Amino acid sequence: MAGLSCGFVGLPNVGKSTLFNAVTRSSVPASDYPFCTIDPNIGNVAVKDSRLEVLSKISGSNQIIYATTEFVDIAGLVEGASKGEGLGNAFLSHIRDVDAIVQVVRCFEGDVIHVKGRVDPIEDVEIITLELVLSDLASCENSLAKVEKQLKTKKELQPVFDALTKVKLHLDQSKPVRSLALTQEEKVHLLPYRFLTSKPVLLVCNVGEEDLPNMTNKHVERVKEYAKSHGLGVVALCAKLEQEIAQLDPADQGAFLESAGLKESGLQRLVHASFDLLGLMNYLTTGEIETRAWTITKGMTAWEAAGKIHSDIQKGFVRAEVVSYDDFVKYNGRVGAKEAGKARAEGRDYIMKDGDVVLFLHHG
User: pLDDT tens digits for 73-90?
Assistant: First the structure.
């Protein structure tokens, strides 16, 4: 699996581009007016993990390769986008390929002009949700019409037609596809249609510096309650603070966070929340050539994880070894030692858990 891809969406002037600038250390414009971002800006962020540095030192690796998360900054949405308002379908088309939707909602007061003239994060969330629902509804209706015509000669498409009909009835109630109970067979039939509202959503509460270090206020608490009742992820951060952190040398960032009363950056919490939302994890490989983090789905077997690197490694996996991170460090990389051998599971049946190191030895 490639690195995680998240699309930043939100109404204009909620701090979306400011946050994007911070997490990617890029120079995307951030201004106090709508549609400052017209084309989607893409940035790949290395997800730092201190475990890799420890493993690299033990293995004498030539390089460290961190897992990456791709962030896509998409133009601010306005009410009526599904009917062509603002940037209309240009906005909607940009988010079809991302794994998850990260909606930035404004939870700070201040002089920056809000497109609706007030701060109401729940209404912001519902505006964007409705626009995506309406877009999906139009797409579903078009697909239904096409499949209905094809049914005259292709009776095998009846299950597809039935699944699309079920989706249409749900969207007609202004409900997103992700809240619809579907059988595994129906999910397979619907895969080609890539409904926007089928994607998992993470709500990012953008707070002001006055809300540090607890990252909460009355707006955030409302969003948390809403997220809980709708099965959405939520994380709070201060985009302005993240931008300040990004401008510091890496060596100074830890002290800056500590002075702000924070244990980790908003970027790290954002990435962790995104991974949890999608059921993803990183597993680690190490050796003289490189120490590297790979992104996979939680619950994969070590044998399946091996195939994410190369099919040849998967074929030769019977001769590979698996050891936990803690044991690898404890025994200073001597995985062949009897003590460490006790911690190894048998290759093909080993279920991947966060923090495990997979060592592919003597493969090929």
Answer: 876 555 554 454 444 455
Question: Nearest-CA neighbor of 239 among 56, 10, 52, 39?
Answer: 10
pLDDT digits (tens, 9 = 90+) for 199-249: 999 999 999 999 999 999 999 999 999 999 999 999 999 999 999 998 888
User: pLDDT for 106-144, tens place per residue?
Assistant: 999 876 655 566 789 999 999 999 989 998 999 999 999
Report which residue type is found at 17: S
What is the C-alpha separation between 302 and 349, in angstroms, rounded? 7
Residue identified by tokens 């970027």 is 267
The residue with greater pLDDT, 49 or 168, is 168
Q: Which two tokens stand for residue 18?
A: 């400011």
pTM, to two decimals: 0.82
Outline where DSSP puts E strands in the chain: 4-9, 41-47, 64-65, 67-73, 100-106, 201-206, 233-237, 280-286, 291-297, 321-324, 356-359
Instruction: List the one residue out of 349, 336, 342 whose CA is nearest residue 302.
Output: 349
Distance CA 301, CA 224 (A): 34
Q: Is 168 helix (H, G, I), strand (E, B) or coil?
A: helix
Contact status, residue 347 vs residue 296, Cβ threshold 8 Å: no
Residue 192 burial (10 A CB sphere; 0-12, 13-18, 19+): exposed
Residue where the block lists tokens 């991974």 = 275
CA distance linking residue 317 with residue 302, whole number of Å? 9
* Local structure of residue 364 (DSSP, 8 states): -
